[in-house]
Amino acid sequence: ELVWFYLRDPCPSFIDSESVTWVHPGYGGSPERWRKGTAPENKATSTWYAGIQYDGDIARAKQVLNELDTYYPGAEKYEIAGFFWWQGDRDSRSEALSSHYESNLVQLIKQLRKDFNAPGAKFVCASLGQTKKDDVGNEREILDA
Q1: pLDDT in tens, 32-79
Q2: How far apart are CA 110 and CA 35, in angstroms?
Q3: How many CA atoms lie within 13 A of 1 on its CB side?
Q4: What angle do CA 66, 69, 74 make, to 5 degrees?
């Protein structure tokens, strides 16, 4: 899910279908969310934090690039020409998440380009393909992004 696992900036709070307002942590924060007006639950034993999957994926990609010859014998340099994002469907199951999906996706693209020093890198986004062209609602929000 784009918001909790990949986004480096905090997601705006949102109101769910039961009129509960939820707050999401900024980068490095935990837990995933809490009710507005309450204190976040302290999960001292949890290793999860907002952005953990992004950090891990970027660290692994940069490790491969730093050890390029190990993975591609004879390779001495590389160019980041683009990024590929395979969108799942968890964001589409929530009106709050899908309504912020486009702005979150834009932030992800900017962050990837920055982290890999590739300001002109192309970005390709694919979906699972279960959303029909004439669908409405949350699925449409994701497709339109």
Answers
A1: 778 888 888 776 667 888 888 889 999 999 999 999 999 999 999 999
A2: 29
A3: 14
A4: 140
Q: pLDDT for 85-107, tens place per residue?
A: 887 677 777 777 777 788 888 88
Structure tokens of 1?
């899910």
Could you tell me if 131 and 139 are in contact, meaning their C-beta atoms sit under 8 angstroms apart? yes
Q: Which amino acid belongs to residue 88? A: G
Residue 101 · residue 142 · CB < 8 Å: yes
Largest CA distance in the chain: 58
Task: Tell me 92's DSSP state.
Answer: G
In the block, tokens 């890999």 appear at: 116
Structure tokens at 70: 């190990």
E strand or H helix at 22: strand 21-23
| Beta pairing, strands 82-87 & 122-127 | parallel
pLDDT at 67: 95
- Rounded Cα–Cα distance for residues 62 and 97 (Å): 29
Amino acid at 50: A
